[in-house]
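sry for the spam today, last one i promise. struct tokens for design, 112 residues
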């Protein structure tokens, strides 16, 4: 079995609070939310990070972003939301399977 936790969630061997799934992408709530709504958009195929993406992945990345915006609306984030990709240890990445964080709700997020 894969030791990648997001591959295990994709395979269904680790439970998640799933929001969405299709043939290429899955979205589920973050286990340690930093905002009232906080979910992750994850490709089903194992790609370690954004740095490992090439032009071959452009359609997948675009699909992940537009899906994230749609799910954010469906989750009630009508005032807006933040989109974040941590890349590599220097970028604070902890799970080395590409994912987009989408979070918001409650108070206005700090300016970055
Ligand atoms: P990152 O720092 O971008 O790699 O973030 C990884 C995120 O995955 C963190 O926000 C974690 O809370 C989240 N996470 C880790 N394990 C799980 C899990 N089993 N289910 C849902 N989210 C998780
Ligand atoms: Zn993986």
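last one done:
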């Amino acid at each position: 079995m894969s030791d990648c936790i997001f591959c295990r969630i994709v395979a269904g061997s680790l439970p998640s609070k799933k929001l969405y799934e299709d043939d290429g992408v899955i979205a589920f709530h973050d286990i340690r939310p930093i905002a009232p709504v906080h979910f992750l958009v994850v490709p089903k195929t194992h790609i370690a990070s954004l740095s490992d993406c090439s032009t071959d992945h452009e359609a997948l990345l675009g699909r992940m972003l537009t899906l994230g915006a749609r799910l954010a609306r469906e989750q009630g984030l009508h005032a807006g939301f933040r989109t974040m990709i941590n890349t590599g240890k220097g970028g604070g990445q902890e799970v080395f399977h590409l994912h987009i964080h989408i979070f918001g709700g409650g108070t206005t997020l700090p300016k970055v």
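The pocket of adenosine monophosphate (ligand 1) is lined by residues 5, 14, 16, 28, 30-32, 86, 92-95 (CB under 6 Å). ok im logging off now
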